[in-house]
Amino acid sequence: MPLRHGEGRKDHLTSFGGLAALSLDALSSVAYGPEAMLLVLAAAGSSALHLSLPIAVAIAALLAVLVFSYCQVIAVHPDGGGAYAVGKQDLGATVSLLAGASLVVDYVLTVAVSLAAGAASLASAFPVLAPHLLEVCLAGLILLTVVNLWGIAESARILMLPMVVFVCAILGVIVVGIVRSHPAAVVGTAAPMPVSETVGVLLILKAFAAGCSALTGVEAIANGVPSFREPRAKLAQRTELMLGALLGPMLVGLAVVVVHQHIAPRTGVTVLAQATAGAFGGGWAYSATNIVVALVLALAANTSFGGLPVLMSLLAKDHRLPHLFALRAERPVYRFGVVVLASLAAILLIAVDAATDRLIPLYAIGVFIGFTISQAGLLRHWYRQRPSSWLPRAVLNGTGAVLTATAALVFVGTKFTEGAWLVVIAVPALMLLFSRVQSYYRVVGNELGLGTTPDRPNGGRSLVIVPVGQISRLTEYALTAALSFGDEVVAVSIHLDPEYSERFRAAWEEWNPGVRLEVVESPHRSLIHPILDYVRQAQCDGRQIAVLIPEVEPRRRRYRILQNQRGLLLATVLRARTDVLVCTLPYRLTSR
Amino acid sequence: MPLRHGEGRKDHLTSFGGLAALSLDALSSVAYGPEAMLLVLAAAGSSALHLSLPIAVAIAALLAVLVFSYCQVIAVHPDGGGAYAVGKQDLGATVSLLAGASLVVDYVLTVAVSLAAGAASLASAFPVLAPHLLEVCLAGLILLTVVNLWGIAESARILMLPMVVFVCAILGVIVVGIVRSHPAAVVGTAAPMPVSETVGVLLILKAFAAGCSALTGVEAIANGVPSFREPRAKLAQRTELMLGALLGPMLVGLAVVVVHQHIAPRTGVTVLAQATAGAFGGGWAYSATNIVVALVLALAANTSFGGLPVLMSLLAKDHRLPHLFALRAERPVYRFGVVVLASLAAILLIAVDAATDRLIPLYAIGVFIGFTISQAGLLRHWYRQRPSSWLPRAVLNGTGAVLTATAALVFVGTKFTEGAWLVVIAVPALMLLFSRVQSYYRVVGNELGLGTTPDRPNGGRSLVIVPVGQISRLTEYALTAALSFGDEVVAVSIHLDPEYSERFRAAWEEWNPGVRLEVVESPHRSLIHPILDYVRQAQCDGRQIAVLIPEVEPRRRRYRILQNQRGLLLATVLRARTDVLVCTLPYRLTSR
After folding, report:
1. Where are the membrane-spanning stretches (chains A, B) (predicted)?
2. Among A134, A372, A410, B372, which has the minimal tally of Cβ within 10 Å of its Cβ?
3. pLDDT score for A7
């Protein structure tokens, strides 16, 4: 559900380009979805594993519902925005807060899950990495962070090649795996499978919910509609259908291979890697496929780095996050977001020791909340608008909403103690944060009179105060500026020593710059507080007051520490304790 | 030699108060000086220990020379300043750089040595602390740091009581220890004394030099002359003589006790503690004396926290450190100094594992450089001025200079590989830093035309640019200020969306604030760069330009993150890339 690459930029994706730019997360989830399902079934013994085929068919059916739903979301919200936009428009403030919070959680989890699954895939190809999954994940995370801090040009074209190779490899695994009559190679260690559950409705529900983690990402296209070429909605719908047509057969096909080859979860090798070995043997094709899978998962993780800033700027524009985040095009803001996202993902990866299956419940809860909100929003939309043939659409979306809400509830209920509590705490905490921020901005907006017409501004008399230490070209430069802006200008000089202050006064009179000099003696050795006191007294007569602080700017950065500390201190104190205009004037050195 | 407590403040010390405020470091060095000497002698076997008495007499003789020299320094430099002032006036720039650098090193070492000796003293009273000397030191250091960050009122009166108790305790140890005919108690473990040296000139020189560490601090009174009551010089000289009269007998007396009671260095207990046990037994008086010694050593360490900022401000006034440090009365500057001093002392203590005897050579080198400079400066002074009876004075100071220079060289030569190399690197490095800073300020001063009379400043036409986001009371407030200062005012508004910018223009016309509005469209989503471009274009016509940035100031600090980030970013960019006046205007909220 996270908003994807390129969203917000109008970069005219074709429907095929859109598949590369917006669907990598969804396609790559075949690397962990089927495995998550098998892990649940394995708890009921190896005989339960054949259930994976019917469950995969059910998941594919849900996928079909979701794909058709999102085609309608695209038609109804051609400006994009996904669950957050749908929630805001059709379901009210609280639901959109819920959508926003679960989206933020999911961006973090997309990074963590994709990296963990990618590391497992890499370790399947290179068993030497198997004991170091966490290190592999963190290395990948650091790489992604650096690349994103440095800034990358987003390009659908670059993503096309890995996507095509990935899809062909997976389809190859399925086709060859089914055609071959016996397993070609055995990789990994057989995991002991203690039978701890019996086959029943709850087990099947749990396996269904776990397998549904393969559906994460199908909402990204609906979020990114503005990135498509005109006719946008049409192209985006076509991309959504292409995604469904690829992902559904891949899921069902992999389930067939699993059953056909009697694949069970093993340690040190992923289910997808076992299927690959079953199809291609253990040679170069096996290694190459695993590497491609790992690469595509890393690219899927990367989509969050593009998507979270977009979501945060949407939230900031709705006054639900500090307005700062609306400035996402400004580098410091963007970098701040990148570092925060990477840090949270790192904490999660360390907490679960890079185990994909422990992250998936957390991930799926957020994603399914989003699915549910989108469908429920459409339901409400149809019910309100009642276009022709609205009833079948409403039934479709209603069914989808019930199914996805069920999956979310199953995850929360069955995995609460295994980490789902974290989402149950984090999502409401984020919602509270958003609404507190929003109410702050509302109160401040009222005080500032936003939306009302203020009085007309009227200028008055002005006084510019220039703190002066010595007589120099810097003083001349500062006074020149001050004389241009103020009706009256006064130079204030603080001296610790009465003798020196006399000499200074004499030198000033000799210079005769046409500006009144006030000499203040400071017995307490502070240079800042006497100026503060002077400014406060001057404030009494109702004039507009500015304090002009000249700053010497060295050419080289390393000389900064040698200059301006006094001005910086003074400016800070004046800003904190007075209401005057605090002005700084750079004087650039040419020599140093 | 470090400048001490109260220096720079004219707080009218009496001669006795001066002893408490300025001599704790010198008096407390009896806690480690004799021990350092015995450790050197012990290397030649226990029979060499009796040499401690003649060497102590020689040290006391050097003390007498130093005391008389500093009485003359006080007479010649009644404004204080010690070795740095003497060096600057009588020996030229390079020597004063040397004095300044060794002073800085010594402030750090005073803290480290005093804390290490204090911890050893405390561990003598409470053997359970013996394996944790470093932890005790660091705890003491943290306590001192916190107290100094919080700020303490310096007061000679508070220091008098511990000083009097300390002096009485040491004199009691000496008198009782000599009167008693046999050792009363044995404390600590006898250390194995491998005989690795023979008695010879070098050994005696080394023992002399090590014992001279007991003289550290005798220069503090000369640094602090301005703190005394009138007649300043007279009172300060009296204090210096009192110090000599106390310290000399204490040193010789302790040597007599050492020989009389056959005291040798032991592990886990200091030499002073052994002497205390010999005099008072192992009971409460023993513990109490050790605690008092530790307390006085901690107070001696504390003098550096008062003294280093004074020295740094002197260096800053001579343009040898960033001018920032001249503002030592300003809290942030003072706190910065405290933290840096504490960090360096902590690094040293950790590096030597809180072993006093490993720090003493480093400490003594710097102190003796200072002694040598003071004496050589006086020699030069007498030779230049040639007052009546200048020759005996010159001989006295020349002898003193030769003796102290010898001690410094002995330390550097014999302890080079044991840590003295650090001083040999640090002192020239600091000198280089000071002279680089000085040459920077000279070049900049020339460019600014310091000491020349600049042209008369002439004001010109002015333009105030106000970046505007919405129409609100904040806008009205900002435009009111702008109209007071500018000949012309223009409001600049950046919009991403052409439609919104049309609406904004209409609202502006309806409000009709009497200020021209410029709407700039930003297709790249940046709000900062379009303003930067606008300002740069406006700069072309030669007017003085100010950019006025209103800032909403929430009442509570925690709401800061929600406001002003845009203004802060803009101000930073404008300061870095343009020469315009950047003004910020606080608008204080009352509601939040």
Report:
1. 52-76, 97-123, 129-151, 158-179, 199-222, 243-264, 284-312, 333-354, 360-382, 394-413, 419-437
2. A134
3. 39
CB contact under 8 A, B591 and A453: no
* Cβ neighbours, 10 Å, residue B157: 9
Q: Where are the extended beta strands (E) located within B434-564?
A: 462-467, 488-495, 516-521, 544-553
Closest CA relative to residue A579, chosen from B173, B237, B584:
B584
**A78: burial class by Cβ within 10 Å (0-12, 13-18, 19+)?**
middle
Phi, psi dihedral angles at A193 (to 5 degrees):
-115, 80
**Tokens 């020989």 correspond to what residue?**
B259
**Burial of A206 from C-beta contacts in 10 A (0-12 / 13-18 / 19+):** buried
B321 to A471, A531, B100, B441: CA distances (angstroms): 21, 24, 11, 10
How many angstroms away from the CA of B543 is the closest CA of chain A?
9
State the pLDDT confidence band at A154, using cuts at 50, 70 and 90: low
Chain A nearest-CA distance from B497, in A, is 13
CATH code: domain B462-588 is 3.40.50.620
- Please give the residue of chain B at the shortest CA–CA distance from A510: B453
Within 13 Å, how many C-alpha atoms sit on residue B437's CB side?
22
Chain B residues within an 8 Å CB radius of A327: 527-528, 565-566, 569
Which CATH number is associated with domain A15-441?
A: 1.20.1740.10
DSSP-derived letter for residue B192 is P
pLDDT band at A581 (very low <50, low <70, confident <90, very high): very high
Q: Which residues contact B238 (CB under 8 A, 6 or more apart)?
A: B15
pLDDT in tens, B548-557: 999 888 888 7
3-state secondary structure of B546: strand
Tokens, residue B543? 């007017």
- A546 touching B (Cβ < 8 Å): yes
Select the residue of B454, B486, B590 nearest A476 (Cβ to Cβ): B454
What DSSP line would sit under A244-286, residue for residue? HHHHHHHHHHHHHHHHHTT---EETB-HHHHHHHHHH-SSHHH
CB B149 within 8 A of CB B225: no
Report which of B506, B503, B510, B505 is spatially closest to residue B491, judged by C-alpha positions. Answer: B505
The tokens for A546 are: 């500015």
Instruction: Confirm if B243 and B221 have CB atoms less than 8 A apart.
Output: yes
Dig out the tokens for B544 from the structure: 């003085």
pLDDT tens per residue, range A358-410: 888 888 888 889 889 988 988 888 888 888 888 888 888 898 899 889 888 88
In angstroms, how far is CA B388 from the centroid of its own chain?
39
Q: What's the complex ipTM? A: 0.73
Residue A57 CB neighbours (<10 A)? 14
